[in-house]
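Annex B, item 7. Sequence and structure tokens for protein A, then protein B.
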Amino acid sequence: MYLTAHQGSPSSDMQSAVSQDLENAMKSGEIFETFPLDNQSIFDIPISSSSKSSFTVILNRILDSHVYSIVMSLITIWALFSDDIRVSACTKSADNYFYGVSTAIFSYFSLDLILNSIAKKDYRFAFYFWLDLLSTLSVLPDIGWIWNPMLGIDSSSDDGQSKVKYTKSVNQGNQASRIVRIVRLIRLIRIVKLYKNARIAMIEEEDGTVHTETDMIPRESRVGKKLSELTMKRVIILVLILITFIPLFSLDFYITPKRSWGFGLDTIEDFFGQDGFENVRDEYIDYHKDDLRPLIYLTYTYGTDNYTWTCDTHPDDLRDTEKYVVTDTHSLAIIDLRFDTHLDSELNICKTIFVCIVLLFGAFTFTKDAEDLVVFPIESMIRKIKKIARNPLNAGMQSSENRSESSLDKAKKKFLCFNRKTVKAEYETTLLENTIIKIGALLALGFGEAGSKIIATNMEKGGDVDPVLQGSKVAAIYGFCDIRNFTDTTEELQESVMVFVNEIAYLVHTVTHQLMGAANKNIGDAFLIVWKFGEEDVIEINDPLVLNKNSKKATYLADLALLSFLKIIAKINKDPRILKYRTHSKLIKRMPNYAVKMGFGLHAGWSIEGAIGSEFKIDASYLSPHVNMSGRLEETTKIYGVPLLLSGAFFDILSSRVQEYCRHLDTIMIKGHNSPLRLYTSDADPTNITPGDGLDKNKEQTNRLRKALKGKLERGQIESWELFEDSREIYSLKEAFTVDFYENYRKGMIAYTEGSWQEAKSYFESALRIKPNDGPTMTLMSVLKENNFEAPTDWEGYRELNEK
């Protein structure tokens, strides 16, 4: 896909057109790797500047990568707790190390802000941009080298009261800054979640083949993304407002209460120059020096009297926030507040964790119901529609998945780490989802494999429905099967004939689908089954087909087609639902010894796959002389007295081991064809088939068996000819045909082809003595007899078929 650069801002029409092309390309996977961002607009990327565009794409991949998100989360977590850890667990001597780490974090946050602004234009000056900016600036109070000079704080200052006010304001301000950093953590957790959801899921199918599915763990839908972002913003703003403004309603925020340290110092001032002054001073020291907040320094100057008292802890060893300085006219006292600061830091850690939990819980719970009731069903619908668009034949499988468990039930199975009791509820979204799947399943049933391209094309391109598309040339095997004596059966069964036909159709469709076939036409008493080759299976789609022998499918598909029809012959003589018609009184009265019989024809060649009809009614099918040939072969089975005829083109693509299960019946010339047609059959005498259990598989079970069989064949775990050797049904069909019979028939066919008809007569008579009612042998004997067992003078090994 190529995009043309335009100078200036793009027009709305051009944006719409390019956006549509981009969306279609993204659906087809052509530019998924190039534009991985959901919100990235094509007009945000300078198309004319390939180097800049490439840099932006690479930068986006780095910023949205799993590793980057994890590293960023760890750094942010440290930034949340580092200052509290510094105060509660370390001494002042370690401050410089923490300041250094905080400086590095500030630099990293700043770089992240810049890079995101460059890579994501929808990020600039948006909600999260300002939060990230505040988060970055909130690191500054943790850097004492910068923050203390900015506030003009001097640890050697004697202005104790100002220090108290400063400490109080800083503590209150840090509450909001920490919450801003928490917001950043929540966003990073969300980025990790979105990244995981956008990753390509590698799914191992039951057949062992690994496929990539971009929609199994889908990217968020637009409505889901918008709803989640709006809810998250509101939760964040609400928490920020609460944490920021609640302290403003506390008296401690405005007034520093006077405590015993200040009252005691006032008493000392009052006793200056009076008797008992030393007792008051010593009592003040004794009372406070062993307190939880001990007095560590006292000094006063009164006239010529200078006095200083200290303890083991020097004031310079404490941080500004760990000292409470009390001053009066002539005196100064310093109190050790490490107990308070340590407790405050520990409580801050707990508060930070609590706010994280509240934010997470609020973000999840606020969006949970909306996601369960609306977003998840919509995303599930979109995912399934895309799946159906890529392969409409998946619609049936989607329908079976919906029957087992609704999307709402899946969404409600688990919340966070808690199992939740699910209650099945049919909401409108669930009803809509089920309806879409049912419509898709009906489309797949109505159009079949031949119509999958019509469905997929119309679902992907949007706009008006265009059912009549240009056909495509494909290579396939065409199997035509017909119910014998159908006119008489219909007249006798009347309304029940629909049940009769559908019971046979179920058997035919189930067996052929399991063996890689696809039902195409249901024409009353006849069915067209197609086994289609892929482009990689065929070297040349012509007459004849040239298959790619390096393709596994090309080596086994014809074998499976033959096996399908042989199994159908066995099952219509075995299934109780079909056998019951042998005892139907009306059918027996009209056709004594009635049994359901079918004729089959198999041919291989090319055809045009597409839609036939108009906007009022279409049928998805295959058109070519090769499709018609399968029908003529089925009709010709009546001449040779066999249930199944194979063309030479089909016989040639069978594996050599399966060709041994076939015999050459004749070589004929058919009107409308300029080359002889070789006819083969795979003998099937149902006399030895014993009644058994009916075929009872639903579509889901059949799909699993088909997938498992395909996997084994593709991996070489089994060979297609082994399916013939291991089948009890195939053995029973072949049991009546002995080695001696085949040997006599083979020699007779060689003599017949070479023109030695007297010799052929002898071998055919020997074959008939072994199997008196063999249709092909009797047919050829009648041909020999018509010519007095002498080959025509112009005999070339084939004859014109007399289609009376």
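Protein B:
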Amino acid sequence: MGAGMIFLKSNPLFSVTDTPIQKEDLKANPIGHWGTVSGQLFLYAHANRIINKYHQKMFYLGGPGHGGQAMVVPAYLDGSYTEAYPEITQDLEGMAALYKRFSFPGGIGSHMTAQTPGSIHEGGELGYTLSHAMGAVLDQPEQIAFAVVGDGESETGPLATSWHLNKFLNPKNDGAVLPILDLNGFKISNPTLLARMSDVDLRKYFEGLGYSPRYIENEEIHDYMRYHEIAAQVFDQAIEDIHNIQNDARDNGRYQNGEIPAWPIIIARLPKGWGGPRYNDWSGPKFDGKGMPIEHSFRAHQVPMPLSSTNMETLPEFVEWLKSYRPEEAFNSDGTIKDEIKAFSPKGEMRMASNPVTNGGIDGTNLILPDWKVFANPISADNRGSLMPETNDNMDMNVLSKYFAEIVKLNPTRFRLFGPDETMSNRFWEMFKVTKRQWMQEVDIPDDEFIGPEGRIIDSQLSEHQAEGWLEGYTLTGRTGVFASYESFLRVVDSMLTQHFKWIRQAAAQKWRKDYPSLNVISTSTVFQQDHNGYTHQDPGILTHLAEKKSDFIRQYLPADANTLLAVFDRAFQDRSKINHIVASKQPRQQWFTVEEASKLATEGLATIDWASTAKSGEDVDLVFASAGSEPTIETLAAINLINDIFPAVRFRYVNVVEIGRLQKKQGKLNQKRELSDNEFQSFFGSTETPVIFGFHGYEDLIESIFYQRAHQGLHVHGYREDGDITTTYDMRVYSEMDRFHQAIDAVEILKKNKVVNEALAVAFVDSMHRILEKHFKVTRNDGVDIPEFTDWSWKELKK
């Protein structure tokens, strides 16, 4: 089946039914991958044998990037596929429909996509098998992740570093990951590094990492029964070793004091294209008179022979190849599966393709959430725009950490925080009062802080790839977590976020798929606060990257203060099957919004702020001010104070934007209710000619593209302009002209041009702003500090 569905769109059991293949049975353009399929199906069969023998709950992750047949075929044979897709019946008609849809327009991909029952890992981007596997078994002690790692994949940075999962997985409370390194020897057209290493060197390598390696290999590659005998012995011992490790931890308290169990790893030397065409002796250069090798070479990687409806010269070789599998021993003449094959498959939810872990989780419900308002700052008209008496209450991330700490207490096995050694830096201090970092190696007191074998935080490996991969595995198996990262280094994993987006988008189209908790990502240590790390740490481009994806599945939030951040997470944790990207400040900031205002901003995504506007609701304005993000809000509101102080007659409206996607106009999408109508957009930003000064956290072209879609021509954005340095807090804003003085200059120049303000007064105002900026440059370059016009400023009530 795995071979046939690459080429055939009908007549799948031609040798069983004695029906010769005709031109119309073949695909015009066969697309797919053969190289890893037979080896993976061999491994899948042994996983099924393990499940039956040990009654072990298990699920499969296919790390080799292609070869989707390795999960499609077993799911079909055990009935899971037909349960998901009733039209794909277990007979000739259903099998033909399955063959046709495989890697075919309007069908399914050649990867292990979200359309494949049992899959939580596609492999479209290589490197994340083990990260996903570990995230999936956290807090699920009964499960084993049967994680097949491709030998090409093993050369990627993320996979190479993910071998260290054994230092974090707790055999007492978590499930197990059984890595199987599928050494088939070749990539697309090159040998693979690990496959050319000797067994001795591989043993040294993996023992150095802390594993107990064992091998499946045989000199005679076509002695299949010997391969099965070896594999059965190796897998049985591996499963028994895992059970012994877990029992020792759960019954005897072992592996809780710095001792790392020697988890098994299986190194399977299974030739590429195993059992397929051996030589391409039909055309091309010859090798020893037989043609160039296909089996056990890179030439088996994709379609291993030139057969299609327009080129049938190799049909005899294809027929001989497929007959070699003796399909008559597995299928009846009507295409139904023989009883002895059915009997071999695990039953019900023990089937890997029907394991509920792989379809939204055993318990995929939302978290039990505390009332976020309990943790909110007491903001009112009397203290708005100033600092709270307690310094830590001005750090939005620290306030959030109080909320997270309570969530940990309410959800002791269903909530985790992931990150790359930045949890303390990101101000999640309150969480350490209720939990530790999970860490299984030796603890050196007093040098190691807040680490131990049990904890709800995993951040002790300096790898964004690992943290993001753990979160994806945790999320796709029905639990809720958060990945917090320095903003600029989210770009390290932006392609991972893309892959997750593609997954949830495809999954949403499958009726049989349950939904998932949303994937929650925090950007912190943000661009306009990088006063000690410098230019390398300045990049808010993840906002633009995610904004390009379909808005049905992406939510991007830019809360300006702690209360809004709390309200946003209350919403994010209840949303389903989304990527929630939250940009949050961790430095002391002015606090702005009451609980009621924050709730409206998080729910509606944006709001006109009356106390920062001089125009009444529905009134025509001379100018609109808007901001999105913590620092832009401070600067825009400070600019409003500057304008209002000198030009109190100017009528303006201030709009705070929290959910940037609400501004986008993408007609024809599934979820338009989050997109403002044109009338709603104009109610905030005025007619197409109304001047808008927009302080933005990210790259300006994102806002420009949004306003362009709205045919709005009055936009003036002040965002990040790819200028930075290691400098002071305020100087970072001045670099990009996002600061209050440049915003105020821009606003007055517009008002002067439109003859709204006195020209002489406007010229004098602009001149005064330039003098302050000159002072700023002089002070920062000479003294290394910010000017008091910034450091001593607080919000002033407007003249109306």
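Comment on protein B: The chain has a mean pLDDT of 95.
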